[in-house]
Amino acid sequence: MAPRSNPTARQIRLGAELRKLRVAAGLKAREVAAFLDSTSAQMSQIEAGISGVSAERVRRLATHYECEDEAFVAALAAVAEERSRGWWDDYRGVLPQVNLDVAEAEHHATFMREVVITYVPGLLQTPDYARAVFRYMRPDLTEAELAPRVEHRMMRRRAIEGDKPTPYETIVHEFALRIRVSDRRTSLSQLQLILEEIERGHAVVRVIPVHRDGFAGADASMMYLGGRVPKLDTGLLDSPTGTLFIDAEEHLNRLRTLFRTVRESSLEPLESRDFIHRLMKEL
User: Fold this and answer.
1) Helix 55-64, helix 70-81: angle, nearest 10
2) Which of 103, 101, 58 minimizes the C-alpha distance to 79?
3) Quick check: 255 and 173 in contact, CB under 8 A?
């Protein structure tokens, strides 16, 4: 397969998992290259996600590495088999690669869990709310640059609203629901959309009230995406330099623990729904 100039996060993850299996087997890249009648350079490209790899070759490698986790190998082979374009590919060259990677990750997730403290979750934002956020964060954006960002964010809702919606649970701090990123009308429309998504069964929303004792997670914002198997779960963290994709097991365990801890500080779903109704009357 021809080398890729800009591999996606999902392709990079496949290569990284193959590298982990090789290292765990105690094999050098050149040894595996010889087994495949290939070269060390091509092995490096495969493990970096720069070169594609077939599902058949993934299975051969897993057997050579003596990996006995059949479900994990099948999941890796399924990733290798993916060839179809997704809706996010229409934005290639228009938006940064990370925007496409996030949309692709959400599309393939088996479940999604999110914690947000300062903003309404992207998957639940209205166009006006999203526009205000982008405009504030990037005042240098022209309308031609801003419009596709807002459109792309709205398209991401396909993950929770499509024919096979992905189970989605989010924990939102009251602060994020109260702050007016634009004006009163935008805030009311935003809260109304959240309630509609709850009623449609597209989202389980839990609210952390400002008065709740024992919540010290001001920096707890994160998204956790379930993979075909737990070993392929993915964490997403926003940083000053962009979105970080997390795949190390120890870090994923921390995110799992973080979500459980934050959930303990939140209201139950029905209480949260009623809480949002009250907020709308106060705005």
Assistant:
1) 150
2) 58
3) no
Contacting residues for 114 by C-beta, under 8 A, at least 6 apart: 121, 123, 168, 169, 170, 171, 222, 223, 224
Residue 177, helix vs strand vs coil? helix
Confidence of residue 98 (pLDDT cuts 50, 70, 90): very high
> Is 80 exceeded by the pLDDT of residue 5?
no
C-beta of residue 82 within 8 angstroms of C-beta of residue 7: no
CB contact at 8 A, 148 and 94: yes
Q: What is the pLDDT of residues 132-165, one digit of tens each?
A: 999 999 999 999 999 999 999 999 999 999 888 9
User: How far apart, in Å, are the Cα atoms of 152 and each of 92, 157, 238, 240, 243?
Assistant: 11, 9, 18, 21, 16
Could you tell me if 21 and 63 are in contact, meaning their C-beta atoms sit under 8 angstroms apart?
A: no
Phi, psi (deg, nearest 5) at residue 114? -140, 145
pLDDT for res 1:
57
95, with CB counted inside 10 A (0-12, 13-18, 19+), is middle
Cα 195 to Cα 107, 113, 276, 279, distances in angstroms: 23, 18, 8, 11
Total H helices, total E strands in the chain: 13, 6
Name every residue whose Cβ is closer than 8 Å to that of residue 244 and which is 6 or more positions away in sequence: 236, 237, 238
